[in-house]
Queue: 3 jobs
Job 1
Amino acid sequence: MQTSHLSVHFADRSALEDVDLQFLAGETTSLVGPNGAGKSTLLKCLAGMLPPTHGAVMLDDRVVDRPNPRVAYVPQRSEVDWKFPINVLDVALMGRSLRSSRVWPVPERDERAGLAALAEVGMHWHAKVQIGALSGGQQQRVFIARALLQQPEVFLLDEPFTGVDAPTQSLVVKILDDLRAAGKTIVFATHDLAMAERSSNICVLLNRRVVAAGPPADVMTVSNLHATFGGAAVSPAMAGARS
Ligand SMILES: Nc1ncnc2c1ncn2[C@@H]1O[C@H](COP(=O)(O)OP(=O)(O)OP(=O)(O)O)[C@@H](O)[C@H]1O
Ligand SMILES: [Mg+2]
């Protein structure tokens, strides 16, 4: 999957400018940048949910201009309406709705697959619970089950490590590692430089434009982090950064 001269403008504000990136099978890419850097905007374009103002997203040789079963998207927690009256199993089963024309009733084998996906993230006991009644980490797990059930080639995750406890973080890391080993393409957004370094093999430093992209150890230099986050914000994060 790749972007070509991708730009997104909202009214008079530019969220992304001329982004050229490539996301390969068997690679995990972290998108790292400050609030408002355009990380979520980029993921939504990759998911086919947001049309670019200029440029394009391509999957193989095709333009991505709508959600595609080959691409799964796990939203940032703050972007989900948690009051929506739907239970955990039905959220997971949304993962199959892009592939299946039959929405209702849910065939039994799909329900079994949904429960199996929930079991992978330790949430099968909560299948009939309203999604809004879960904790943040549990909700995150259910959205990951939804993505697994979709059986996509590309996984897009918006801040999967934010606001979750250590066991959930470890579970997500393990799932992403296994998916990468299975040859999937993974892209996640994060503020956490340590997590980017540990869990991605390509790091994109983003602040409306791509500041740098490459192996985390190469791109996380003091000057690149300054250019991405600005001077004041960098210091605590720079403990592991190279000069
Ligand atoms: N639907 C929208 N309408 C208007 N402006 C928007 C919209 N979505 C995003 N923006 C703006 O685009 C810019 C990038 O937002 P985006 O959500 O992509 O940033 P982000 O890097 O994900 O930030 P955060 O770390 O806070 O999640 C911001 O200035 C934001 O206000
Ligand atoms: Mg965001």
Note: The pocket of magnesium ion (ligand 2) is lined by residues 39-40, 76, 158, 189 (CB under 6 Å).
Job 2
Amino acid sequence: MKIQIKLPILHKQLLYFEHALRRNYSTEHGTIPHKILKRMDAWQIHEYCSEVQLTNTRTPIINSPNDVLIKVEAASVNPLDVAMSNGYGSEMIGFLRKIRTGSELPLTLGRDFSGKVISKGFSPCKSKELQVGQQVWGVVPVHLQGSHAETVLVPNAVVAPQPSNLNPVEATSLMYAGVTAWSALYIFGGLLFRSIQGRRALVLGASGGVGSIAVQLLKAENAVVFASCSTDAIPFVQTLGADVVYNYNDPDYVEIVKSNGPYDIILDAAGLGPEDYLKNNWNCNAYVTLTIPLLKNGDQYGIFGGLLSSATQFVLPNLKAVSQGSTIRWALFQPLPQAIEHIGKLVSNGKLIPTVSEVYGFNDLQKAYERVGSGHLRGKVVIDMLKQSDGLTPVKGEREENTKEEGQ
Ligand SMILES: NC(=O)c1ccc[n+]([C@@H]2O[C@H](COP(=O)([O-])OP(=O)(O)OC[C@H]3O[C@@H](n4cnc5c(N)ncnc54)[C@H](OP(=O)(O)O)[C@@H]3O)[C@@H](O)[C@H]2O)c1
């Protein structure tokens, strides 16, 4: 009986000491502004299929020696953010987030950032490279809380010093879309292991966030780049360096693309998918698509059922493709340091230029989501955190109302 009464007290004391230790020994304490240490404003969803809400919530704290806390200065808005706010990936990504952070909701979206290091863990490998106060850029893995907030906590592997020739808005416009384009081409398209110099590559959706960067990555490798977009985007895609630009509104588009083949690689950054590719009968070695049904299947059939139906949807079209001498590859955003480094080098050499289509203030995030949701973008939509305007009162984080704030 005596032990039963004392255990909760002991547990509380252990938690207190654990937090004290984290504060004092895993971060460069004393460098964090008081206001930022305690609470921050973040755009969150509190349930799926609801509008993002400006929420006053707890600032994340360093939990591991590899963590870096960033003061966000700019973050891009991607179709994925809008889709996730509508419940896309809630089964699979939600499951991962629950394991990693202990809770699924509320969820802060935003998959990249440009900002300054506020605080960092004492990781031996990267601690020299990243300094408190340094201007950095990076991406946020999909299962972690995002960057549409005043601060974001990320592993140091996905943070790097930002090239000095970019401002925060330009920098973040290249991050999530750039790392996705790099993942699709270099990992799933295999360019890490072979050269595409002088070979023919076709980018579908070249006017979009991912496609416009993919064209530039391929031109930097001296590939012969074919690109597709709609009529009004042709001049924009030409300025990216595409050698041949196809107009997908042209009634003869499918035939023209086919007659110019074969292609070494086709990157589908247009949201089309393997069915379209097989129907069009375009000739290529590798068709790499960013439109994959994995998360959608997970939402529909649960994690196990989703994996099973995705396996079928992967194998069957591939059987047909292989019989035609091609392969269909599903590409996923990979938050890898090599991708950030590659993009940084190209930016510094002037071989990759940002294409920002619209900039919104932090308080106008809902408008930015609407804009991205309506599509037909030419480059990226970016949130500029320094462009805050008055008039919005953040709601208090639901799950925290009864929780005593840490550090109070
Ligand atoms: N698997 C992953 O990890 C991952 C990661 C990021 C993105 N994605 C997916 O990749 C795709 C591209 O993302 P994003 O951020 O670049 O989207 P985005 O900015 O909306 O770009 C899509 C572009 O595709 C163009 N397009 C539409 N239909 C086309 C067609 N039939 N032929 C040629 N171009 C066409 C659109 O041009 P118009 O305006 O003229 O229609 C638009 O510019 C999206 O489907 C997204 O969901 C997947």
Note: Residues 294-323 form the longest helix (30 residues).
Job 3
Amino acid sequence: MDGAALARAARSGKRHPVARLVSLMEDTRAASASARDDALAYLEEEARQRGHRSTIIGVTGTPGAGKSSLLAATTREMLRLDPEATIAVVAVDPSSQVTKGALLGDRTRMRTSVEETRLFFRSQASVTALGGLAPPTYLVVRALTTLYDYVLVETVGIGQSEADIKYLADTVYLVMSPGGGDDVQMIKAGIVEIPDAFVINKADTPGASAAYYQLRGALWLARPFDADRVAVLLTSARRGDGITELAQAMLDHRNEAQPPDHLAERAKHFFAEWVRDEWGRQGAQVLEPDPTMAGRCDPATNFGAAQAAFTRAMQRHLAGAESGSGGEQIPR
Ligand SMILES: Nc1nc2c(ncn2[C@@H]2O[C@H](COP(=O)(O)OP(=O)(O)OP(=O)(O)O)[C@@H](O)[C@H]2O)c(=O)[nH]1
Ligand SMILES: [Mg+2]
């Protein structure tokens, strides 16, 4: 597969070419590794030449808090407020936890016309046992930052994924809904410390303002140093309350937009995640003595090649362990 050709086609912003590019980024097979690297290299170079910058906004929160409904309403409003803005949404579905109906719901809520090139939506199954981001999310997001001004990533917040989204996103919004008992759990898990801003959704239901004051109180306890500066927005995706404010808050992150390859510096973290996901503890043991892969394959510039190299090293390691020779420690 010709990765650069796919990337060139995706620059049109048309849904199908972008979808094919995203599928390539999600393809973890070694056979597609060089196509992925070529596509990313092309996109980042092309974006650099245009002076393109983008910002990544993570939207996390408890299951059913209304993240998808909010994103559907908010992205529409963002496009209305800023007629130039382009937005990609990646929703990471915890496929092990929700029914197929919910999955389908996520997809239909974000349905837009095929001609709409300013908005792209992708739902991605999260297959990781850790409950965090799907392993290919990093590469997908990295590719999308070269094409869109805003990349919004929806994840379900269950511990580990909060920390993960902090690595991936420039800004993290936590969505809560009243009466869910969310606040108490958040403080316990220390999760309230991670987000940059909070959204209390379902403001049309009882308990929304109580939840607001509970959260404000929790913020004073958990992060007294910046509690008064943290935004807490009240919204109703159903009625449309607070959507303009949320859309404007997200648009304002444009000021912090970054050049196309700014995710490169986070490659090491997500490469280690991939190793753990793909090869478990044994993989981590092989990677640990030589996290730079002896300088041979830098995941920052050649993520796919680094994966392929590590896979080969791992296979040799395992074969060696079986034959009793102890195998190789350093991936080559
Ligand atoms: N009353 C009310 N219900 C809402 C609101 N926003 C979303 N919902 C409902 O809450 C349910 C969950 O909404 P989703 O948007 O799927 O929530 P989510 O956080 O994306 O859910 P998961 O991705 O499954 O974790 C749906 O039945 C929505 O119709 C709101 O503002 N008010
Ligand atoms: Mg959702």
Note: The chain is about 45% helix and 15% strand.
